[in-house]
């Protein structure tokens, strides 16, 4: 067991834990068509590498006249805004709306705004000349009925353009970006130190937590921060995160793990870890794949990861379970209310956060209520009473202090009823809330009740107990079991979040100010209220209300609802006949297994970006789905009755993700897919399709394509390329044909450029066993990579998994079992090693395979191979893994290892394969990996390719490398006796071997 140390926060050191005001350090405002894929992308990457948490609207394709609420929220929660003025910036009303919002935040929220003039004259922006002048001529014509908004844009443009910023002029962009990031870091460091001034004594506590991290040590450490809710765990972790982040290669602060995992699952959290730590967007299809990616991609990277508010062991298992998932010197901080989780994980230390003592609490209360270090004399006794009441809970002090300052003012003097909880403004302790609602002693003074229990408790609240709470705005209840239903809820409510709501329905009355209803896991709920009585409602979440048969038809014409989630309502049948919801953004019906028909989408519903219908009983989609112009993600997984899609669905310009997997009756995609250029992921796994339209080749942004389990493809007599036309898919990186049992991969595979599909999965396609075309395809790819590497292009790799039981002869070093070890003379390695090709035969005995990974060993030292893992899942026969990895970035590691050789000048080289099982330790077994092979690729191997006519054309600047015209026997031994350069070495090798 890992050594355990517990650091208890000193009760004598003053400390406060104010929640930081900002979610993001920087918000980037830019014109996508001008700078998205060049300057803005480079600046964004540089900011992330520096650990500056930056918001960039990656998905934005300007549409309409108004920016989205999410974007407005991101602006409001950013400390800095960088506005990149480019040639066409002012032509976008979206950009101008964004800019106007930024200016408003600059004036009212203390945001700092910094302009960048990218290939534009600052005076053109300030005086609105050139392209800026032309843009406003067009705006004035378009908005001649609303000139006020145009003037607002003009004013915002002038105001920001007059601020101090950066002008590119003719400077090199890389140096320019470096200067921007450096200056911004200094500004952030200064503002961060200013923020710490408001956190009483935080530095002393942070230093103690920092000492537990021991960042100078090269071991991997996991540290827990433990304490009750509201005690300040998150803020303490964030402060330390900022203090030490510069010492790591990658940093990620994962906030609200408990809440976000409940809402969205763990896959988005895994994706965020990969995005922030590796600076790349990765499509992860399930949590097991996410675990596989995390522990294989981060194992050689020194990272800092904070998991905030963890409450389930499964969260740790899927996000940060083992120390060997992360590189040497990495640190993981876990904040939690559950100490048992930390003991189970065997963390290296626990920092226990206690409540504030009276002096600390009084100081914090005074800062919040009076903006001074000490309360005014007239309020001293009252403040001491408040401090005594809250018993050192910082969050409670903050709420009461803010309430004292902003709302109640001097009137709180008259509420010296510390022994009567019914006369307080906010209640959050079970004893107080239980007392008020059991004795029916509530008053109109109560504005908020928040009761989130870790363990369920029984309560006997009076049915009429809420009737006196005339000013109740916030009601959050979780893990309370009631013996009686509430007969009344006050119409003053703004938010009701009641998990396990105990009534059949919400009382039928008007709630004029109610904005959010969340009644998750409420089996007694059988009807909803009339939605005309909640006119400003924005969020409706009735997830896992398993006995709810329908929703009131008035929901279909609600004008303010943004989010509707009925996930897991498995008895839901009745929905309105149509939706005319102009504000709706997210509609989730996942797991509503009795929903057979989706409402028609009428009117303006262009804000809908997510439509999740997975697990429903629908047989088709309404043609009116074409009205969802903003739709980005469509989930139809496991819709067992779905037969087809409307032909218009792929006309949606913003559609990115389409999942039709598991729709066993789905027989064909629409013939015309060419208008869906934005689609990046298409999954039709487990469907009955027998044909793929040729228009799929026009999906130029498609990255992931899966036909896993589409056995109908194998029944056709057409060739592979007639079945699945890939030409034109220039962004494709993952093609999954597992369990399709295709008949052949013909020799015309060389029509596809070898680097177009670097991940090709063909598990259980038994008729393709040891297909020579695929092996040639793999060798061609490796050969091409040798030439491309001369251009220093990183991340060249390929993975193929196919049925088979023999290692191809091309792999010059082979062995039985999971390891191959060879001795090579140092002269044999003096040429640059440019690539590593490996092969393994994996047996079918263990049907629960989840993945295979491998390590390259030089003289006993592990060399980290980029992306060394492949998910192989369940296989029904022996399979061959073929893998090529470039060595770009690993030259230093090779040179360090190769300086060691024995007295005869020989080095020990090897490859070692391991099998991953979910929930088990990784282990190696000769029974799992039957055989393996290795081939090192050198610069000299290029000489053994016969160039094509196009390749020899001196005017060609193409990076494409032709398929080698020599067949395998002529291409096999380019690093042995055919090379006179190594003749003596090869003779020595033959003696050794």
List keywords for this structure.
single chain; 993 residues; alpha/beta; Rossmann fold; 20-stranded mixed sheet; globular; disordered N terminus
Structure description:
By secondary structure, the protein is α/β, with parallel strands linked by helices. The protein has 6 domains: about 25-190, Toll/interleukin-1 receptor homology (TIR) domain (Rossmann fold); about 200-350, Rossmann fold; about 360-415; about 510-620; about 630-740, Alpha-Beta Horseshoe (Leucine-rich repeat, LRR (right-handed beta-alpha superhelix)), CATH 3.80.10.10; about 775-945 and about 965-990, no CATH class. Helices cover about 25% and strands about 20% of the residues. The protein is built from 25 helices and 38 strands. The strands form 5 sheets. The chain has a 20-stranded mixed beta sheet. Strands 1-11-7-10-9-8 form a 6-stranded parallel beta sheet, with helices on both faces. It has a 5-stranded parallel beta sheet with strand order 3-2-4-5-6, sandwiched between helices. Helix 20 links the parallel strand 26 and strand 27 (about 735). Helix 4 crosses helix 7 (about 145-160), helix 9 crosses helix 10 (about 235-245) and helix 16 (about 360-370) packs across helix 17. The radius of gyration is 31 Å and the shape is globular. It starts with 5 loop residues before the first strand and ends with a helix. Mean pLDDT is about 75; it is low at about 1-20, about 60-65, about 405-415, about 745-755, about 790-795 and about 945-993.
């Amino acid at each position: 067991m890992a050594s355990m140390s517990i650091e208890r926060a000193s009760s004598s050191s003053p400390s406060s834990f104010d929640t930081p005001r900002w979610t993001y350090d920087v918000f980037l405002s830019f014109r996508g068509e001008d700078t998205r894929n060049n300057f803005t992308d480079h600046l964004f990457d540089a900011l992330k590498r520096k650990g500056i948490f930056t918001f960039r609207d990656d998905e934005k394709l300007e549409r309409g006249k108004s920016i989205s609420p999410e974007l407005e929220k991101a602006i409001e929660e950013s400390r800095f805004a960088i506005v990149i003025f480019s040639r066409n910036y002012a032509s976008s009303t979206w950009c101008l709306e964004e800019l106007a919002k930024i200016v408003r935040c600059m004036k009212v929220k203390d945001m700092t705004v910094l302009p960048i003039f990218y290939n534009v004259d600052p005076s053109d922006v300030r005086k609105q000349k050139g392209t800026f002048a032309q843009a406003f001529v067009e705006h004035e014509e378009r908005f001649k009925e609303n000139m006020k908004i145009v003037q607002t844009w003009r004013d915002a443009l002038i105001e920001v353009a007059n601020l101090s910023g950066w002008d590119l002029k003719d400077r090199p962009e890389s140096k320019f970006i470096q200067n921007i990031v450096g200056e911004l870091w200094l500004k952030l460091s200064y503002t961060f130190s200013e923020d710490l001034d408001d956190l009483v004594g935080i530095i002393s506590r942070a230093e103690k937590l920092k000492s537990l991290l021991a960042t100078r040590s090269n071991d991997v450490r996991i540290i827990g921060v433990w304490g009750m809710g509201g005690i300040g765990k998150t803020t303490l972790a964030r402060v330390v995160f900022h203090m030490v982040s510069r010492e790591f290669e990658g940093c990620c602060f994962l906030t609200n793990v408990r809440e976000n995992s409940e809402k969205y699952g763990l896959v988005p959290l895994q994706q965020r870890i990969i995005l922030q730590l590796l600076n790349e967007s990765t499509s992860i299809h399930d949590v097991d794949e996410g675990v596989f990616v995390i522990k294989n991609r981060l194992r050689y990277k020194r990272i800092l990861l904070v998991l905030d508010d963890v409450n389930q062991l499964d969260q740790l298992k899927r996000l940060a379970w083992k120390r060997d998932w992360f590189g040497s010197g990495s640190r993981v901080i876990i904040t939690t209310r559950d100490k048992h989780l930390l003991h189970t994980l065997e963390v290296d230390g626990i920092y226990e956060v206690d409540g504030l003592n009276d002096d600390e609490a009084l100081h914090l209360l005074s800062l919040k209520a009076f903006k001074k270090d000490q309360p005014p004399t007239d309020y001293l006794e009252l403040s001491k009473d408040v401090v005594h009441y809250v018993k050192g809970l910082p969050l409670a002090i903050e709420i009461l202090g803010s309430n004292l300052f902003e709302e109640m003012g001097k009137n709180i003097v008259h509420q010296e009823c510390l022994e009567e909880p019914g006369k307080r403004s906010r209640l959050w302790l079970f004893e107080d809330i239980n007392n008020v609602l059991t004795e029916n002693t509530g008053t109109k003074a109560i504005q908020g009740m928040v009761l989130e229990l870790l363990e369920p408790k029984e309560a006997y609240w009076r049915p009429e107990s809420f009737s006196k709470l005339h000013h109740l705005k916030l009601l959050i209840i979780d893990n309370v079991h009631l013996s009686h239903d509430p007969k009344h809820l006050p119409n003053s409510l703004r938010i009701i979040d009641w998990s396990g709501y105990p009534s059949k329905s919400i009382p039928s009355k008007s709630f004029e100010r109610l904005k959010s209803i969340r009644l998750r896991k409420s089996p007694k709920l059988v009807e909803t209220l009339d939605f005309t009585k909640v006119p400003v409602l924005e969020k409706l979440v009735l997830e896992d209300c398993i006995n709810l048969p329908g929703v009131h038809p008035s929901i279909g014409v609600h004008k303010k609802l943004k989010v509707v989630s009925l996930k897991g309502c498995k008895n839901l049948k009745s929905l309105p006949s149509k939706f005319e919801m102009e504000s709706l953004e997210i509609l989730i019906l996942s797991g509503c297994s009795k929903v057979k028909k989706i409402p028609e989408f009428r009117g303006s519903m262009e804000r809908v970006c997510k439509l999740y219908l997975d697990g429903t009983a629908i047989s088709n989609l309404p043609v009116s789905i074409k009205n969802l112009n903003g739709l980005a993600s469509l989930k139809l997984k496991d819709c067992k009755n779905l037969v087809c899609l409307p032909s218009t669905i792929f006309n949606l310009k913003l559609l990115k993700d389409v999942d039709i997997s598991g729709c066993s009756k789905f027989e064909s995609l629409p013939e015309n897919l060419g208008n869906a250029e934005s689609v990046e992921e298409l999954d039709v796994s487990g469907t009955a399709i027998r044909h793929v339209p040729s228009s799929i080749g026009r999906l130029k942004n498609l990255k992931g394509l899966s036909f896993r389990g589409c056995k109908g493809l194998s029944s056709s007599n057409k060739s592979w390329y007639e079945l699945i036309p890939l030409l034109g898919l220039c962004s494709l990186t993952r093609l999954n044909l597992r369990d399709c049992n295709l008949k052949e991969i013909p020799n015309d595979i060389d029509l596809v450029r070898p680097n177009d599909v670097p991940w090709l999965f063909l598990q259980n396609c038994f008729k393709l066993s040891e297909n020579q075309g695929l092996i040639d395809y793999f060798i061609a790819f490796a050969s091409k990579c040798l030439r491309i590497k001369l251009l220093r292009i990183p991340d060249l790799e390929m993975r193929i998994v196919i049925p088979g039981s023999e290692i191809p002869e091309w792999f010059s070093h082979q062995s039985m079992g999971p390891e191959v070890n060879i001795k090579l003379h140092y002269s044999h390695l003096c040429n640059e090693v440019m690539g590593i090709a490996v092969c393994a035969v994996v047996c079918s005995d263990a049907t629960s395979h989840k993945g295979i990974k491998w390590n390259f060993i030089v003289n006993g030292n592990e060399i980290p191979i980029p992306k060394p893992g492949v998910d192989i899942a369940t296989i029904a026969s022996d399979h061959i893994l073929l893998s090529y990895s470039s060595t770009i970035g690993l030259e230093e590691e090779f040179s360090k290892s190769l300086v060691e050789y024995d007295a005869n000048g020989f080095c020990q080289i090897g490859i070692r394969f391991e099998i991953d099982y979910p929930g088990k330790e990784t282990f190696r077994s000769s029974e799992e990996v039957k055989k393996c092979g290795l081939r090192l690729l050198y610069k000299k191997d290029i000489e053994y390719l016969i160039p094509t006519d196009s390749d020899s054309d001196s005017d060609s600047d193409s990076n494409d490398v032709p398929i080698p015209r020599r067949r395998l026997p002529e291409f096999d031994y380019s690093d042995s006796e055919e090379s006179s350069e190594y003749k003596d070495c090869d003779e020595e090798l033959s003696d050794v071997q």
